[in-house]
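Example protein was shown:

_____
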Amino acid sequence: MSVKVSPEIAAEILEKISQISYSMGFSGGLRPAQWNALRYFGKSEDRIRTVGHFARYNMTTPSSASQTINALVVRNLLRRSPVAGDRRTYRIDLTESGRQLLQRDPLQHLIAAIGEMSDEHRFDFAEHLQFLLLRLLERATRQ
């Protein structure tokens, strides 16, 4: 039996999931953008662990990305190191404290919920999310 779901209902469900996940990001004394930064610098290759690369990945301004990073450096969760041969660029790394805090990442709740899906459903879900992401990126770049 096939049930039709309107695009509006599907969008509202996705938005609600996003809202709940986002609100859970206000934990551990951090904001969602700061958790995002910890995740990014925790999994990125050395060459792209810079403010500029993080800003592009996060689709934000270098100034906004720098403020997020500065807050985490002050809290000793990230560390800046000069890049040899480029006085304007710094590589950003997780500190041990940052690594430990990342183990309590609130995104783990969403990961666990997705993990409860069967492999087949998870594959289909990821395909559908990728489709939506690509369509939204196309629309965002046209603005």
The chain has a mean pLDDT of 94. The radius of gyration is 18 Å.
